[in-house]
Amino acid sequence: MKNSYKYYLLLFLLATIYACKDSPEPTATSSTVVETYLNSMISIMKTNSINRNKIDWNIFKTKVLDAAKGAQNISDAKVKEAIVVALNLLQDNHSLYQTSNGNYIVNTLNGVSCKDVTPILPSLDNEIGYVKISGFSGSGNSANNFAQNIQATIKNADSPKIKGWIVDLRGNLGGNMWPMIAGVSPILGEGLFGYFISPDGSEYQCSYYAIGQTNGITITEQYNLLKPNPKVAVLTDQATASSGEAVTIAFKTRANTKSFGNATCGLSTANQGFNLSDGAVLILTVSTMADRTKKMYGNRVVPDVLEQNQEVYLRQAITWLKE
Fold first, then answer.
1. Separation of alpha carbons 236 and 239, rounded Å
2. Range list for CATH 3.90.226.10 in the chain
3. For residue 180, how many C-alpha atoms fall within 13 Å in the half-sphere facing its CB?
4. HSE-CB of 219 using CA atoms within 13 angstroms
5. Which of 65-85 are b and which e, b meaning 16 or more Cβ less than 10 Å from the residue's Cβ?
6. Edge-to-edge strands, sheet with 305-306
């Protein structure tokens, strides 16, 4: 009887083992909160992305949700992984995600490089004006002050002897383009300077006028050059990116203007911020930068005089300004 009991117990155990072996393992599922959050983000991308007409959104959605599988809340590391997957799949190299605490999640497959050698300063006499425009990401009063400080630099450098100006955009990695435009406006001039063009062909005109507020920037003391509409040499390098490229393009096709140096980074596209439910912001690439003739860029902006050697192109710029 005991042997019979052991025999049936063994058969039961073997049957249980094989039954468990043949049964599929349970799959981890994401919470409804996570799926709703990611679906909302994907919907924004599908509606507004610069590459919206080039993406298979069913495949896109599947890959993003699969990356978050098992996540139970938005702060889960798997959600971060899913956001990276989404940014990579957008293939615009410019979109990014800002968390509610100010940290950034970026495209890990970015195919552009925004690095270059440290710029050397030109040796100038009193016939050449010089203004350096650095990257800036602020807004409000800090943006107004940034623009006003650029104009103060221009005012201090201006004189009746000036034959031309150097606008140095080397190393400008971007941020908020509007205080840069407002700051350099005494040299750039007022009015239309470019466009943002979306994939469906709709256009947003980019203009600057000193009177009143332009795109959130208020200049309390607009400076006017002693010699308006000057000759301008624009300097760029591969560390000129995003809003730095927007200022570069603003000078494209301007009369009496020539650019020198290295081609820019290749992020000459426009971003727009979209607020998400947890306080994060999706900073999405939505359109392409274009100059005042509506020539579209989107990649590296090549200067009129393409030259790697800094001493050579600085000398060329100064010579051209004095011609």
1. 8
2. 128-269+287-322
3. 26
4. 26
5. bebbeebeebebebbbbbbbb
6. 128-132, 164-168, 232-236, 257-261, 305-306
Q: Could you give the CA distance from residue 67 to residue 85 in angstroms, rounded to a whole number?
A: 7
User: Distance (Å, rounded) from C-alpha 143 to C-alpha 153?
Assistant: 16
Closest CA to 210 of 201, 199, 219, 202: 219
Report how far residue 159's alpha carbon sits from residue 52's, in angstroms, rounded to the nearest whole number.
50
Number of neighbours of residue 39 by Cβ within 10 angstroms: 12
> Quick one: residue 266, left, alpha or beta (phi over 0 = left, psi -120 to 50 = alpha)?
left
- Cβ atoms of 98 and 280 within 8 Å: the answer is yes
Instruction: Decide if pLDDT at 1 tops 70.
Output: no
Nearest to 232, CA basis, from 322, 107, 321: 321
Q: What is the pLDDT of residues 237-288, one digit of tens each?
A: 999 999 999 999 999 999 999 999 999 999 999 999 999 999 999 999 999 9
CB 305 within 8 A of CB 217: no
Structure tokens at 109: 């497959």
Do residues 151 and 186 touch, judged by C-beta distance below 8 A? yes
Distances (CA, A) of 130 to 124, 165, 223, 278: 8, 6, 15, 45
What whole-number distance in Å separates Cα of residue 276 and Cα of residue 34? 13
| The pTM of the whole model exceeds 0.85 | yes
CATH 3.90.226.10 for the 128-269+287-322 domain, yes or no: yes
